[in-house]
Amino acid sequence: MSKIPEDLLYTTEHEWVQVEGDECVVGITDYAQGELGDIVFVELPEPDEFLTQGSSFGTVEAVKTVEDLYAPISGEVLEINTALTEDAVRINTDPYGEGWMLKLKVTNGSELESLLTPEAYSKLIEE
What we know:
Elements: E1 9-10, E2 15-20, E3 23-28, H1 30-36, E4 39-43, E5 50-51, E6 56-62, E7 66-70, E8 75-80, H2 83-86, H3 90-93, E9 102-106, H4 118-126
Antiparallel strand pairs: 1-2, 2-3, 3-9, 4-6, 5-8, 6-7, 8-9
């Protein structure tokens, strides 16, 4: 059973968002890392890059596949988790903690309304 923290928002592409004022932290869900298997590499955008909601912002590479990562909301990249470049397995072991991917400056708060609640995400992955 995948962990779905109650204090986060989710996308249908399996990213999570933790809102902290006008910033948010983004990563992939426990469900996503479980489906991918052993993650060996992650490619993330550069700080100061601007992301548009729904656009690809990087890739995550597992032993058997490479998947795109999608911006859950529009915003400016404030910081990336550089520790993942040396140890991408953190995404597998702690997807909601040490496996976070980037921090964004929220530019359109209304986009948060399009994200899934924990309950809605739980239903999505049960289908």
